[in-house]
């Protein structure tokens, strides 16, 4: 009997964990609980919601900076809804294929029937991949600046070392010249 109760509690907990979070009703903490939404995006959502509830996903994407169709599809797959509706954009289709195998088979049949229509759809994701990633570009730029600074620092250290060695050699040469000049005077003093 105890095992059944614990199993029921575990199922209720799992159901509550996967419950949908409506963007118009959720607190900032609930929004943070959605995978991919951090404090920055949740605060933007809450700020925009103060101006008025979101009508639909397109309104949500338009008003919240930093959220595009790709992120909207990810957030919807994680349980975020707008007025109880999930995102039904172009990016949501791959997520539906993973979850619903019969739908995937019917879509494959449609794709086989219309191969010319399927080719542009396949080319579109490839075009997206070619776009430069601003985060990667910023990271590469930062690394290049870091490397340049390290090279400059090494150059200055090498110059300082060379100057120190030159000064040391000049002192030694001066000392040797002084010793050479003192030798004839010492020899003359002995005679």
The count of strands amounts to 2
Helix content: over 70%
User: Which segments are poorly predicted (pLDDT under 50) over 5 or more consecutive residues?
Assistant: 91-129
Radius of gyration: 35 Å
Adjacency order of strands in the biggest sheet: 1-2
Query: How many individual helices?
Result: 9
Compressed to H and E, one letter per element, the order equals HEHHHHEHHHH
How is this structure best described in words?
The protein is mainly alpha-helical. The protein is built from nine helices and two strands; from the N terminus they run αβααααβαααα. The protein has helices at 2-17, 28-32, 39-51, 57-63, 69-77, 92-99, 101-113, 115-130, 134-190; strands spanning 21-22, 80-81. α6 (92-99) packs across α7. The radius of gyration is 35 Å and the shape is elongated. 11% of the residues are buried.
Outline:
The chain is mainly alpha-helical. 75% of the residues lie in helices and 2% in strands. Helix 6 crosses helix 7.
Features:
191 residues; mainly alpha; two-stranded parallel ribbon
Write the layout of secondary structure elements.
Blueprint: H1 2-17, E1 21-22, H2 28-32, H3 39-51, H4 57-63, H5 69-77, E2 80-81, H6 92-99, H7 101-113, H8 115-130, H9 134-190
Parallel strand pairs: 1-2
Helix pairs in contact: 6-7
């Amino acid at each position: 009997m105890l095992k059944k109760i614990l199993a029921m509690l575990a199922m209720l907990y799992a159901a509550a964990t996967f419950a949908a979070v409506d963007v118009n009703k959720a607190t900032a903490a609930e929004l943070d609980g959605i995978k991919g939404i951090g404090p920055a995006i949740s605060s933007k959502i809450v700020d925009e919601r103060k101006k008025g509830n979101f009508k639909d996903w397109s309104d949500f994407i338009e008003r919240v900076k930093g959220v595009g169709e790709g992120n909207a599809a990810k957030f919807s797959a994680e349980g975020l809804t707008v007025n109880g509706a999930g995102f039904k954009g172009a990016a949501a289709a791959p997520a539906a294929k993973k979850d619903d195998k019969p739908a995937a088979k019917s879509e494959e049949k449609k794709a086989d029937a219309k191969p010319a229509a399927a080719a542009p759809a396949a080319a579109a994701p490839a075009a997206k991949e070619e776009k430069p990633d601003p985060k990667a570009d910023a990271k590469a730029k930062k690394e290049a600046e870091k490397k340049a600074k390290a090279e400059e620092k090494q150059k200055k250290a090498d110059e300082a070392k060379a100057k120190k060695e030159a000064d040391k050699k000049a002192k030694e040469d001066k000392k040797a010249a002084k010793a050479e000049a003192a030798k004839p005077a010492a020899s003359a003093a002995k005679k």
